[in-house]
């Protein structure tokens, strides 16, 4: 195993951290001290760089991981340097983008939830993140919404309505985390980051993620033939699977 050139590529929320929480120092030390000598490390998340840095212990995450791919790889860091970025506004055009956002806001005004807070649409470089409850909710409100959503399918129903309203503009919808879903051009899911790894001469790329079922934001990359997919239950399970894979 150690003679092969291996990359371990990780989702963040639910895989290396509890949702929207900071990585456990013991797991962080395990990755750096035990895994990194045997495998290159990479991180891909739907969140922007600031959120990734916040959860992964600071901006030096780009030096601790060989590759960091915020926003599904629409922004790319390699060995601590930014090497490129893509932009959804340029891709879709302002008229289409604004029409879509207007419909989202109108739709959200028609549904009633136990609570609503703020920041319902977050504009990122490579995607829109839509949260029916609003991203400024507390951790308790976040946990409560996740349970409510499992019962009432708020996000799933909203995606169905958006798909009907905008069938021809080439968008993918992906539920991830506890309170939101991502919207991005077809092909701009987490597999987007793989194009930046294809010529890096890895013998094996192992992807670890928790939202690997169809509709989850790890699904497309989990089933991609360029990676060996590992479904994990939580950060503890990620560590156990790494220990088994690398014979630690």
From TrEMBL:
GO MF, one term, reads: phosphomannomutase activity
Residues the entry annotates as binding Mg(2+): 11, 13, 210, 222, 224
- Which Pfam families does the UniProt record give? PMM
Does Magnesium appear among the keywords? yes
Q: Which UniProt keywords apply?
A: Cytoplasm, Isomerase, Magnesium, Metal-binding
Where is the protein localized?
Cytoplasm
Pull one GO CC term from this UniProt entry: cytosol
GO BP annotations of the record are: GDP-mannose biosynthetic process; mannose metabolic process; protein N-linked glycosylation
Identify which top EC class this enzyme belongs to.
isomerase
The protein's job, in short, is: Involved in the synthesis of the GDP-mannose and dolichol-phosphate-mannose required for a number of critical mannosyl transfer reactions.
Q: How does it assemble?
A: Homodimer.
Q: Which family does it belong to?
A: Belongs to the eukaryotic PMM family.
Q: What is the protein name given in its UniProt record? A: Phosphomannomutase
Q: Which organism does this sequence originate in?
A: Rhamnusium bicolor
């Amino acid at each position: 195993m150690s003679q092969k050139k291996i990359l371990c590529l990780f989702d963040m929320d639910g895989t290396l951290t509890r949702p929207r929480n900071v990585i456990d120092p013991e797991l962080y030390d395990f990755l750096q001290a035990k895994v990194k000598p045997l495998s290159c490390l990479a991180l891909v998340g739907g969140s922007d760089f600031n959120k990734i840095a916040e959860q992964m212990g600071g901006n030096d995450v780009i030096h601790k991981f060989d590759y960091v791919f915020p926003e599904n790889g629409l922004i790319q860091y390699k060995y601590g340097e930014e090497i490129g970025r893509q932009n959804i506004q340029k891709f879709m055009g302002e008229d289409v983008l604004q029409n879509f956002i207007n419909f989202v806001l109108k739709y959200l005004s028609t549904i009633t939830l136990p609570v609503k807070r703020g920041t319902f649409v977050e504009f990122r470089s490579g995607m829109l993140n839509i949260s029916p409850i609003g991203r400024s909710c507390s951790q308790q409100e976040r946990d409560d919404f996740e349970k409510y959503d499992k019962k009432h399918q708020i996000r799933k129903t909203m995606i169905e309505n958006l798909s009907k309203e905008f069938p021809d503009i080439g968008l993918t919808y992906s539920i991830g985390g506890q309170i939101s879903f991502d919207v991005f051009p077809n092909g701009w899911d987490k597999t987007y980051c793989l194009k930046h790894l294809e010529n890096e001469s890895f013998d094996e790329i192992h992807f670890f993620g928790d939202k690997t079922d169809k509709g989850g934001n790890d699904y497309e990359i989990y089933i991609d033939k360029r990676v060996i997919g590992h479904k994990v239950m939580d950060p503890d399970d990620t560590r156990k699977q790494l220990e088994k894979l690398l014979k630690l």
